[in-house]
C-alpha cells in the first residue's frame, strides 16, 4: 500500500488522515503523536484529534487533476459521535410524538428548504397544497413553482423506492427533477457537453464527467466508511457538486444524492431524522463559506482538505438536531394545543445563533412566513404570550425572547 504523509509547516503534531488518492482511500496513522491537543487550526469546534489508529480502506474514487482530497478522520470522530448520540435521542422520542411529527413534515421540509436554499420563493404552505393536490389526483397549476415542487416530490419518491445508485438512475433522477421546466439548458446524452465555471471554481471537464461519476458510484458502493455512513454521504455530496455534471440544478442533485446514500446504506429511519435541506438552509451562510474556502485551497494547488467541509456539515446537523431536541424538552411549557406554525417558528429561533438573548417581534414571523395570513400571525403571537417559554416586553410592537 502506498503511504502518503503530510507534515504541518508550523511543527504541529501530525494527524491521522484519510487520503482519497489514485483510486484508493487510505486512512493513515503516524506512530509519533504528541499527547497534547493539536494546535492545527480547524474551522469547527471539536479540534482534539484522539484515538489514533491505522485502518486502510480501498475504493475506486479519484480526484480532479491529481490533487488529493484529505480527510482528518480523527478530527471528525467527536462530531460524528455527538451527532449519532443526538439521532439516537431523537429516535427515543417516538412515544412522545416528536419522531412522528418529524417524519410527517419531512417531505414538505425537504422540498421547501431545498428550493429556498436556491433562492426560490417557496413556502411550506404552498408545498403542502401542491402535494395534497398531487396525491388527490387534482389538476396541478402549470406555473414554474408548482412544477418545481411536483418534480421534487417525484424525485424523493424515486430515491425512497429501493432504487440503486447507478449512472442511469442518476440521469433518470435529474430528468424527474427538471421535467417541463423552462430554464433547463439542453445537454448531451447524459451530462453537459461544455465546460462551466462555478463561482470562482472551474468544473470538471465535460470529457471526464462520466468517468468521475462512475468512480463516485464505486466509492458509494464500496465498503469504505460503511460504519460512518453520514461521513460517506457528506463526501459523496461534495464530490458530486465538485464534478458539477449538469449546467444547473447540481446543488439540488447533490443534496438528493446525500439523502439517497443515507437511505440505501443507513439503519431504518435514521435518514428521516436528518432534515438535510432544512439544516443547510438554516445555516446557508456557513455552508457557502465552506465551499469558498475549499475552492481557494484548490486554486492554491494545495491538498484539498475535506475535513473543513465534513466538519462544518456535521456541526450544521448537530445544531439543527439539537434545536429539535430542545423543542421536545420545551413541550411541557408550550400551549397544550400549540400550532404547527408556532413549532416551526420555534425551530427557526432555536437555530439562530444568539437567539436566546435577542428580542423579536411578530414581524420576524411574518418575514420568515410571508404567505401566512394576518390571522395566523395574530394567533402565533397569542400563543407566544400564553407560553412560559418566552419573556414578554409590552409595547408597540410587543416584543418577546426565548427564556
UniProtKB/TrEMBL annotation:
Residue ranges of every copy of the Fido domain listed in the record: 165-312
Pfam families: Fic
Protein name: Fido domain-containing protein
Amino acid at each position: 500500500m502506498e503511504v502518503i504523509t503530510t507534515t504541518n509547516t508550523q511543527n504541529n503534531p501530525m494527524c491521522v488522515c484519510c487520503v482519497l488518492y489514485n483510486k484508493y482511500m487510505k486512512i493513515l496513522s503516524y506512530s509519533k503523536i504528541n499527547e497534547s491537543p493539536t494546535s492545527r487550526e480547524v474551522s469547527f469546534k471539536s479540534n482534539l484529534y484522539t484515538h489514533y489508529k491505522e485502518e486502510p480502506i480501498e475504493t475506486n474514487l479519484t480526484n480532479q487533476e491529481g490533487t488529493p482530497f484529505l480527510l482528518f478522520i480523527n478530527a471528525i470522530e467527536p462530531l460524528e459521535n455527538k451527532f449519532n448520540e443526538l439521532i439516537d435521542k431523537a429516535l427515543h422520542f417516538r412515544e412522545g410524538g416528536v419522531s412522528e411529527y418529524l417524519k410527517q413534515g419531512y417531505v414538505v421540509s425537504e422540498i421547501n428548504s431545498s428550493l429556498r436554499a436556491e433562492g426560490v420563493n417557496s413556502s411550506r404552505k404552498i408545498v403542502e397544497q401542491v402535494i395534497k393536490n398531487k396525491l388527490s389526483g387534482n389538476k396541478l397549476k402549470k406555473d414554474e413553482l408548482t412544477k418545481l415542487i411536483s418534480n421534487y416530490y417525484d424525485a424523493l419518491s424515486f430515491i425512497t423506492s429501493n432504487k440503486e445508485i447507478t449512472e442511469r438512475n442518476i440521469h433518470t433522477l435529474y430528468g424527474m427533477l427538471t421535467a417541463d421546466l423552462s430554464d433547463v439548458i439542453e445537454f448531451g446524452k447524459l451530462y453537459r457537453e461544455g465546460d462551466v465555471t462555478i463561482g470562482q471554481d472551474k468544473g470538471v471537464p465535460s470529457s471526464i464527467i462520466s468517468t468521475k461519476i462512475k468512480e463516485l458510484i464505486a466509492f458509494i458502493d464500496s465498503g469504505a466508511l460503511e460504519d460512518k455512513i453520514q461521513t460517506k454521504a457528506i463526501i459523496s455530496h461534495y464530490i458530486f457538486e465538485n464534478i458539477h455534471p449538469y449546467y444547473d440544478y447540481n446543488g439540488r442533485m447533490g443534496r438528493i444524492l446525500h439523502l439517497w446514500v443515507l437511505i440505501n446504506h443507513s439503519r431504518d429511519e435514521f435518514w428521516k431524522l436528518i432534515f438535510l435541506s432544512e439544516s443547510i438552509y438554516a445555516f446557508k451562510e456557513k455552508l457557502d463559506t465552506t465551499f469558498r474556502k475549499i475552492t481557494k485551497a484548490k486554486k492554491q494547488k494545495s491538498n484539498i482538505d475535506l475535513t473543513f467541509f465534513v466538519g462544518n456539515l456535521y456541526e450544521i446537523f448537530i445544531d439543527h438536531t439539537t434545536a429539535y431536541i430542545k423543542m421536545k424538552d420545551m413541550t411541557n411549557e408550550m400551549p397544550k394545543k400549540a400550532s404547527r406554525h408556532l413549532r416551526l417558528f420555534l425551530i427557526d429561533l432555536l437555530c439562530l445563533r444568539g437567539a436566546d438573548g435577542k428580542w423579536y417581534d411578530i414581524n420576524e414571523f411574518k418575514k420568515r412566513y410571508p404567505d401566512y395570513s394576518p390571522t395566523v400571525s395574530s394567533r402565533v403571537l397569542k400563543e407566544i404570550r400564553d407560553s412560559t417559554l418566552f419573556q414578554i416586553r409590552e409595547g408597540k410592537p410587543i416584543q418577546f425572547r426565548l427564556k
